[in-house]
Amino acid sequence: MLTGAPKVSPDHVPNMAAMTGRLGLDTVPAAWPTGVSQLALAINACHRCDAFDVCNDWLARAPKVIATPPAFCPNAPEFKRAKQAKEK
């Protein structure tokens, strides 16, 4: 039985780039403060996130520089760790 085309998830990469940029983090693997494996996990968590629309809306309204990620973000703990590691 055909079920139609598979559901295509939205592209989360621009949201993650915008979020990390506002936090002062660079998503270049060699520059990720907590290591490339942690960046890979963060990318995966972003792609699996159900809050894409909430994130889009938040990014449209949030300041261009933020100190901490929003609580709804599944990567908030990792982004906080990466920001603290970068500031050391």
Describe this structure in words.
The structure is a single chain. By secondary structure, this protein is mainly alpha-helical. It has one domain. Helices cover 52% and strands 0% of the residues. The longest helix has 13 residues. It starts with 12 loop residues before the first helix and ends with a helix. The mean pLDDT is 89.
Concise summary:
This protein is an all-alpha fold and 88 residues long. The chain has four helices and no strands.
Per-chain topology:
Layout: H1 13-23, H2 36-48, H3 52-61, H4 76-87
Residues in helix, % = 40-55%
Radius of gyration: 14 Å
**How many strands, what sense, and barrel or not for the largest sheet?**
none
Q: What is the typical, i.e. mean, pLDDT? A: 89
C-alpha end-to-end distance = 57 Å
Low-confidence stretches: none
Structural class: mainly alpha
